[in-house]
Amino acid sequence: MHPRREVSTPMATAPWQRAALGANLLGSDGGLGVTIFEEMTALAVQTGAINLGQGFPDEDGPLEIREAARAAISAGANQYAPGKGIPELREAVAAHQERFYGLTPDPQTEVIVTTGATEGIAASLLAFAGPGDEVLTFEPFYDSYGAVIGLSGATHVTAPLLAPDFLPDMAALEAVFNERTRVVLLNNPHNPTGAVFPRNVLQRVVDLARKHDSIIVTDEVYEHLTFGVSHIPVASLPGAAERTITISSAGKTFSLTGWKIGWLSGPEDLVSAARTVKQFLTYSSGTPFQSAIATGLSLPDAFYEGIAADLEHKRDILSQGLRAAGFDVFSPQGTYFVNVDTAPLGISDAVDLARRLPALVGVAAIPVPVFCHPEGAARTRSLLRFAFCKKTGVLEEAAERLATLSGRL
Ligand code: PMP
Ligand code: GLN
Questions:
Q1: In angstroms, what is the span from residue 53 Cα to ligand 2's centroid?
Q2: What is the pTM of this model?
Q3: How high is the pLDDT of residue 5?
Q4: Strands (E), 165-276
Q5: Which partner from 62, 105, 209, 285 sits 20 to 30 angstroms from 68, CA to CA?
Q6: What pLDDT does 34 receive?
Q7: 118 CA → ligand 1 middle, Å
C-alpha cells in the first residue's frame, strides 16, 4: 500500500482549475463540471428517480426553529450580523459544547459563526495551509476538502479507510505524517463511509499531530447522528485542545441544510486566524437564521436522542432493502449514508452504475470513487453510497425498486 499521493499542479493551471481537479470535478466530457451531488440530483430529477444521492432530508427540521427565524425576520433582524456571529448563537454553541462534551470555549473569543460548515472548513484551511505545506485527510474524503486544499496551494495527502469498518490502517497513517504535515483535516462521523472513529484512532491522530506540530481541523457535522456509539470530539482528548479547531453546523442536526449556519470553536489564536479569512469570504452569515439556530441548540436532550433513533430506524430499512437486492452492505455507525459493494451483482464500476441506476430502476446514488484520488478510486471502484435521510415510505419504495436491479443488468 502506498498511502501518499501528491496532486500535480502544473504552473499553467489556474488556482480554481487546480481546486476543481483536486475535488474530482472533471465532468464526464473531460471539461470542468458540477459536483457529483449536482450531477446525480439533476439525473434524478430528469428521470423521476428517488434521490438517495445528495444527502438532504425530505422533511424540514423542528417547527419551533423555523418559527423562530420567521419571528426574527419580523422583529427586524435583517441587516448584517457581527462578523463573528451574534452573541446569542456564540453563547448557545459554547453551551452545547459544554452540555454534550464538557468543553468550555469562551463565546467571546473562541467561537465564531460561519456560513455552513463549508465556510468553516475553507476559512480554516486557507488560514493555516499554503504552498509547501501538506494537508492530511482520510480517503475517501468529502468533496469540498480536495477543492479547498487545492485553493490553498497546499498538497493533499491521504491515508486510506478500508472496508468493511472503514477504520484507518494505523501504520499507513503514521507513514504519511511528516514535518510538512501542517493540518490534519478530520471528519468524524465520516462522510461518505459512515465510520465513527473510536478513541484509540483519534488519540493516535492527536499524538501524531503533536509529534509533527500539526493543527487538527475537525469536521463534526454529523456529531448527533450516531447509532449505538457515542461521538467523541477529538478536541476532548488529552493534548488536542490547544491545536484543534472543531467545526459543525445546523444542517444535519436540525434538518435545515439550506440555512447554511455553521460554527467553529477552538483556541483563540486559531479561531482568530480563521475569522480573519472568514471576513473576506462572506463577512457574516444569515442574521435571522442565527438566532433561530440558537433556539435549536437549546432544545432538550430528548430532541437529540430522537433524531438519532429515527435515523437508525431508517438506516435499518434501507440496509435491509439493499441486502435483499444483492449488495454487500457496510452498516454505518453514524451519518445518514450507507455504503454497499456492488461486486456481488457482478458490477465492477460503481461510477458507471450510478450513471445508469436512475434509468434502470428509478433510484439515484453516489459512487464512492468520486471521493478519492485515483489510487483510492481503484480501491473503492465497486462501492456506492446511498442516503437514508428520507421518509420511511420513500426508503421502502426505493428498496422495492432496487430489488429488481439484478434482473435488469
Ligand atoms: N462536511 C461534511 C462531511 C458534509 O457531509 C457536509 C454536507 N452537508 C458538509 C461538511 C457541509 O456542511 P454545511 O452545509 O453546513 O456547509
Ligand atoms: N453533504 C452532502 C452529501 O454528502 C452534499 C452537500 C452538497 O451538495 N455539497 O451528500
A1: 9
A2: 0.94
A3: 38
A4: 167-168, 181-187, 215-219, 244-249, 262-265
A5: 105
A6: 75
A7: 6
Closest ligand (CA of 387): 2
C-alpha cell at 296: 435549536
Task: Tally the residues of the chain.
Answer: 409
Best of 142, 197, 220, 245 to mutate for ligand 1, by most ligand atoms within 8 A of CB? 142
**Domain 15-60+302-407 sits in CATH 3.90.1150.10:** yes
Q: How far is the CA of 192 from the centre of ligand 2 (A)?
A: 10
pLDDT at 36: 82
* Domain ranges within the chain, ordered by starting residue: 15-60+302-407, 77-299
Place of cell 449556519: 261
Measured in Å, residue 39 CA sits from the centre of ligand 2 at 11
- What is the amino acid identity at position 338? V
140: preceding bond cis by omega (within 30 degrees): yes
Measured over the CA atoms of residue 316, residue 317, residue 318 and residue 323, the dihedral's sign is: positive
Mean pLDDT by 10 residues, the chain (409 residues): 40 55 47 76 96 96 98 98 98 98 98 98 98 98 95 97 96 97 98 98 98 98 98 98 98 98 98 98 97 98 97 98 98 98 97 96 97 95 98 98 95
Mutate to test the pocket of ligand 2, among 24, 25, 34, 37 (most ligand atoms within 8 A of CB): 37
| CA distances, 222 to each of 205, 250, 333 (Å) | 19, 10, 11
Rounded to 5 degrees, φ, ψ at 129 are: -120, 145
Ligand 1 nearest atom to the CA of residue 261, by list position: 15
Q: What is the CATH number of domain 77-299?
A: 3.40.640.10
What pLDDT shows up at residue 7?
40
The rounded distance, in Å, linking the Cα atoms of 387 and 312 is: 12
Instruction: Identify whether 107 is preceded by a cis peptide bond (ω within 30 of 0).
Output: no
- What does the pLDDT read at residue 16? 57
User: Which residue's alpha carbon is at the smallest distance from atom 7 of ligand 2?
Assistant: 37
How far apart, in whole angstroms, are the C-alpha atoms of residue 60 and residue 360?
A: 29
